[in-house]
Design brief:
The radius of gyration is 19 Å and the shape is globular. The protein is an alpha/beta fold. It has 2 domains: about 150 residues, Vaccinia Virus protein VP39 (Rossmann fold), CATH 3.40.50; about 80 residues, Adenine-specific Methyltransferase, Domain 2 (Adenine-specific Methyltransferase, domain 2), CATH 1.10.1020.10. The structure holds S-adenosylmethionine.
């Protein structure tokens, strides 16, 4: 089974089984689309035979195109980088100064992802990547097998960098779409939207709801994960053919869960229950 190549905030590994449980049993034969790709945890788990992936983050999407089309050069370049503080800041500056050849851009993104603090992708108001050096014992920057496997899976996949709603152009009746948007924050302090320069607010969630309705009318099957907050429940609960399931998250005793941004999540879907 393939694994994500990048670490990504909001990665959905822990929800994978819950999501697949909603899919029809013939899902491996269906075309699959993932418009908020990030690290693509579900995608790599599924290893779809055809479909599309998308993310608004253009450098992230450049990374996946290079991973698909030019994995050997990606491995060669990234293998030269060493895990040292000076090297980290030198490469971070180079990444921010840009523009770079696509393959070098992708190799540095991989390096920063593996050696930066917490594998965050964060940019400042000027669009500069500003994550500090991360402290690890001996981070594995280039996992050759993982890169090669991910590359082979991506060979059959269309890779786009557009807004999420463009999936309505690509998805056809019977296809499956998984939406994993930046969650609507639970409180003012939880910063779920710091993925990329543009935030993702309530208006975007309304647009996402319209996209789900459009797909439903076309006979496309979808699952969306989101936070269990009233505005999201209000958007979806009354729609014919949709259902909202709550997923309980693990919480440790005696801690303030909402401060850590850990909340229950919901899965919104139009998959028939008997699937
Ligand atoms: C929660 S993360 C997805 C995590 C992913 N499921 C994983 O397993 O790693 C949300 C992603 O949506 C992207 N994004 C934000 N706004 C978007 C938009 N309007 N259209 C498409 N992608 C967007 C972000 O760049 C981010 O990578």
């Amino acid at each position: 089974m393939a694994r994500p190549v990048l670490k990504w905030v909001g990665g959905k590994r822990r929800l994978i089984e819950e999501i697949i449980r909603l899919f029809p049993s013939d899902y491996p034969e269906r075309t699959y689309h993932e418009p908020f790709f990030g690290g693509g945890a579900l995608f790599f788990h599924l290893e779809p035979i055809r479909g599309s992936i998308n993310d608004v983050n253009k450098r992230l999407i450049n990374f996946y195109r290079v991973l698909r089309d030019n994995p050997d050069e990606l491995i060669e370049i990234a293998s030269k980088y060493t895990y040292e503080k000076d090297e980290y800041y030198r490469l971070r500056d180079r990444f921010n100064e840009g523009p770079l050849e696509d393959v070098e851009d992708a190799a540095i993104l991989l390096y920063l992802n593996k050696t930066g603090f917490n594998g965050l992708y964060r940019v400042n108001s000027k669009g500069e990547y500003n994550v500090p050096f991360g402290k690890y014992k001996s981070p594995r920057i280039v996992d050759v097998k993982r890169i090669q496997l991910a590359s082979s899976i991506l060979k059959k996949i269309e890779i786009n960098s557009e807004r999420f709603y463009s999936v309505a152009k690509y998805a056809k009746k019977g296809d499956i779409v998984y939406f994993d948007p930046p969650y609507l924050p639970v409180s003012d302090t939880s910063d779920f939207t710091a993925y990329s320069r543009a935030g993702f607010g309530y208006d975007d969630h309304m647009l996402l709801k319209d996209t789900c309705v459009e797909l439903h009318e076309k006979g496309v099957l979808f699952v969306q994960s989101n936070s269990h907050v009233q505005p999201i429940l209000d958007l979806y609960e009354a729609i014919d053919g949709f259902r909202v399931e709550t997923v309980q998250m693990n919480r440790s005793i005696n801690s303030n869960a909402s401060k850590r941004g850990e909340v229950n999540e919901v899965l919104i879907t139009n998959m028939p229950e008997s699937c």
